[in-house]
Write a structure and sequence with these properties.
Blueprint (H helix, E strand, L loop, with lengths): L1 E7 L1 H4 L9 H10 L5 E7 L5 H15 L3 E5 L2 H4 L1 E2 L9 H15 L6 E4 L6 H4 L8 E2 L2 H18 L2 E3 L18 H20 L6
Parallel strand pairs: 1-2, 1-3, 3-5, 5-7
Antiparallel strand pairs: 4-6
Helix pairs in contact: 2-8, 3-5, 5-7
């Protein structure tokens, strides 16, 4: 049995996909139809930042003993209140948090990857309607995504670029993909995972 665990936030959890419960559940449905025994565990929690994930990662990892670890986290870290000088997580701390997660993940698996961040529809999330004076914007998201990519390269782990995948028509509320958006993410991430399982990144 191959255990794949995906840690992340509300997009990972599957928010706004009323058809199949999100891209992670679509992975489970897809791999479940294969002859090989592959289980995909969704460990996404709405609202999570890297801080929150650090608090629960080791406990959840020990219980699941994953063969492949995938992170999809960072959008909520890029969120800011008032202006960019007041981010949910500073860029410097974000880098530190990612490194902590990678160091911890290496205790359990040598197959570790990050799904990059997706864009938002700024007309709907500046500010976000469910939290006063709180914002997401694409320029800021790109800065956090660049750190994810840089940390992955430095640690020789897998990174999947996602910034150009979704347009505004695929975003339900400006932040979360609709069912078509989750399907598009699933297809790209599935190929990424297959590559992770068959490639030794350190040999490249």
């Amino acid at each position: 049995m191959v255990r794949i665990c995906v840690w992340g936030d509300s997009i990972t959890y599957g928010a706004s996909d009323s058809e199949k419960g999100g891209w992670v559940n679509r992975l489970n449905l897809s791999f479940g139809g294969k002859d090989e025994d592959i289980n995909v565990y969704n460990v996404g929690i709405s609202g999570d930042r890297t801080y929150d994930l650090i608090e629960r990662f080791e406990i959840e990892c020990k219980k699941r003993n994953p063969d492949l670890i995938l992170f999809a986290i960072g959008t909520n870290d890029s969120q800011y209140t008032g202006n960019r000088d007041n981010p949910s997580t500073s860029l410097e701390k974000f880098r530190d948090n990612l490194q902590w997660l990678i160091d911890s993940a290496k205790k359990y698996s040598d197959k570790i990857g990050f799904v990059g961040l997706t864009r938002v529809d700024e007309s709907k999330v500046m500010p976000i309607p469910w939290r006063e004076n709180t914002y997401y914007d694409n320029e800021n998201i790109e800065k956090y995504d660049l750190i994810i990519k840089d940390v992955c390269i430095s640690n020789k782990i897998f990174y999947l670029h996602m910034l150009d995948l979704l347009n505004n028509s695929l975003l339900n509320d400006g932040l979360h993909p609709n069912s078509l958006g989750h399907e598009k993410m699933f297809l790209k991430i599935k190929d990424f995972i297959v590559g992770m399982m068959t490639t030794d990144i350190k040999s490249q």
